[in-house]
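Q: Structure for this?
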Amino acid sequence: MKILVINSGSSSLKYQLFFMDKSIVLASGLIERIGESKGNINHKAGEKKISKENEVRDHTAAIKFMIELLCDPEDGVIKDKSEITAIGHRVVHGGEKFKEPTLITEEVSHAIYEHEPLAPLHNPANLTGIVACKSFFGEIPQVAVFDTAFHQTIPPEAFHYAIDNQLYEKHGVRRYGFHGTSHRYVAQHAAEFLEKPIQSLCLITIHLGNGSSIAAIKNGKSIDTSMGMTPLEGIVMGTRSGDIDPGIIFYLERQLKKPLNEIEAILNKQSGLKGLSGTNDMRDLLERKKKGDRKAELAFLIYAYRIKKYIGAYTAALGKLDAIVFTGGIGENSIDIREEVCKEMKVLGIEIDENLNKTESRKERSIHKIESPVAVLVIPTNEELQIARETRSVLEKK
Ligand code: ADP
């Protein structure tokens, strides 16, 4: 069975074609600068790489390029698009309606559209990809896999904000959480790695990429997560502030005399690591820190400290802790961040092994001391494979 996974952004389209029987990627690609006069098309199939500059007028044109590359008579990996059994789409916001991956019908497309106010940048772009695929793939089943769905098990005491209840009832103001596909994937893989049923485990999964979030997972179900109604809440991110006193927003409005949308942009795009140190890239930040840059040093400490606080809070929420799991570009690769986060955490049963932590690898691994009561794992995430698996699971239920 071959499943195509699509992640459609406002001006980009990422795709991966999986051969599910072996969980391998047959081809993948990224088409960027859609709608501009010069678009970038990058396609990879095994060792073969193709890069082109070409105008990509819209998402429909992007899908057309993708199909041509996948079906190319010389370099293609399939003969015809009909070899694709199903298409799985990443959809950012499913609100309270979508708790599971869902077969896309007219009604489902409409519901994704209706969730636009909750994810104004993402849901319309995701929908554009769905509509463009429909025009080429006709009756091939398409499935929406929602970033928010995994967190729909969070109980009311964790998802409500302490504000007028009508704001929840009428406007849907509550914690939804994001990165659900990644948290689900690494939690499942952590359980397999530990050779224990996920139904018996209490895990804290720590996804550290450009956007970052932490989830508390009890018996396989998310019971809390650090991102909230929007991806702005939680730990420090590349350019997002994470948790702040909401009073700061009103103070800034008065002091800076700027409209709210500009303050929103400051918190989303000029804050986090970038605001603290001048760079949003953790590799740059670590380089600067090594050279004695004080701002980079402080940003590093703030970043790790916030993660520590969440680990403490989620351990209390879970009632026991079997493992913490690092993932995402920073979680998988940064020895320094993992070390700083796990430092002096014996009180929670977390004891990292310095040498194991320093061993570089792309594989799933444990980095705790033998005597550590809590396992510390590094599990590389694979959101595309998870979307492909969830897409297959919807077909199997049909
Ligand atoms: P995205 O959220 O866009 O998918 P990634 O998960 O790829 O992002 O993570 C990007 C972050 O990972 C960047 O801050 C980058 O600097 C960081 N990163 C990647 N490799 C390393 C490394 N070897 N050491 C430290 N940070 C790294």
